[in-house]
Each structure stands twice: as structure tokens, then as C-alpha cells.
Amino acid sequence: QGMSYALVANLDPIYGLYCATFPLLVYGVLGTSRQLAVGAVAIVSLLIGHGLESIEPAKLPDGQLNPQYLVLAIASAFISGMAMLAMGLFKMGFVTRFLSHPVLSGFTSAAALIIGFGQVKHVLGFSPIHSNNLALIMVDVLIRLRSEAHGPSIMMGIAAICLLLFFKKHPKLKKLPSAMIVVILAIFASWALDLGAKYNFKIAGTVPAGVPAPMVPKMPRHE
């Protein structure tokens, strides 16, 4: 789940693993709630991905992650954390009472649609046009579906969705970590069938070991 949130934010999967690990360690020391879910969430990842791309492109021409984009993402996370810490110290949680339910519901619903269409590229094998108009994205996908779609990727995506629904609907399997099981099965299938070489799948590849050394991010200057 953390790896998928990193992809939503246009980052490499390893940074999703970092975000799924270190917040738990910090909250275990400072937190007071046993029910609170800590870590990256879809809406924040979406805001990071769409917000920072207006400043710096996420990918270099060769498809690699842009180092400047990574710096901006780390700096954004740090500044957001400091802001949340300050709001917590000053007991400013009451501000959320001024956000009406229709506003929150509309925001989360729109975010779900944008995230869903944003991940279509991983299932179909090609990237739709960048647009805030969902109708234009749907038309673009339908036009290019027959000529540019990657059949094996579509089959893998459908199989993963069917497995997730099966776990969700089966009464005896509901409590199992379905997402983790599907990921493990997909990794095994990728290794056993050599999907990257034989079927031209885009795979995560080798995940870097260890953790990066702490450092102060250097903010890029824009004229």
C-alpha cells in the first residue's frame, strides 16, 4: 500500500516503504491513540504529485526520477509535518469543525476518481493525457485503447482486482490481509514467469537496502 501511494505521488516505490515505516516508530513514542492509522494516505500523495509537477517535472527524459522533484517532495513532507506539529501544540483541531460534510465528501470523491484514472496507465500500459477534465481522459483512453494497450498488463490488473474482490466477498477470508497476499502472488508470478523480459512488464526491480542518511534538503531556486 505504501509503495502504491509513492507511485501516486510520482515517486519511486522505496519512498513509500520509508513513509510506511518511520511514522510508525515516531508515533509509537509520541502518540496516544491505538486506533489511529499512521503513514501515507491517498489524498496527500495525490496533492504532492499534482502540486509539485507544476513546479518541477517528476521524471527526467530517460524516465528516471528527477532529483529536484524528490527534494521538493521531501521538503513538502517536512514543512507539512512542522505545520501539523504546531497545530497540535496550539490545539487547533477545532478548525476542522468549520469544514462542512458536503465539502469533505465532494473532495474525497473527486480525489478517488482522479487517483483511479491516474493509475490507469499502470493497468493499460500507456499514459493518458494530463488533464483535470475526466471526460477528456476517458475519451483519450478509449481512442488509444485498441492500438496502444498492453494486453498482459490488463490481464494482470484484472486478475489482481478479481482476487481482491474474492477476498472481500468471501466471509472466511475477509480478515486476511488481501492486498499483501495479492502483492506477494504478483511478485512470485513476475519472478516465475519472467514477466519483465518475456512480456515487457515494467517492474520495480531491485529495492535499495538500508535507509538514507538524514540531511537537510536543499531547496531549488526558481527565478
Would you spell out the secondary-structure blueprint of this structure?
Elements: H1 2-8, H2 13-30, H3 42-53, H4 67-89, H5 101-118, H6 120-124, H7 134-148, H8 151-169, H9 178-193, H10 195-198
Low-confidence stretches: none
Q: Give the strand tally.
A: 0
Helix content: 55-70%
Gap from first CA to last CA: 37 Å
Decide which structural class fits the backbone: mainly alpha
- From the alpha carbons, calculate the radius of gyration and give it in angstroms: 19 Å
Key traits:
223 residues; mainly alpha
What does this structure look like?
The two termini are 37 Å apart. It contains ten helices and no strands. Helix 1 (2-8) packs across helix 2, helix 3 (42-53) packs across helix 4 (67-89) and helix 8 packs antiparallel against helix 9 (178-193). The protein is an all-alpha fold and 223 residues long.
Short description:
By secondary structure, the chain is mainly alpha-helical. The protein contains ten helices and no strands.
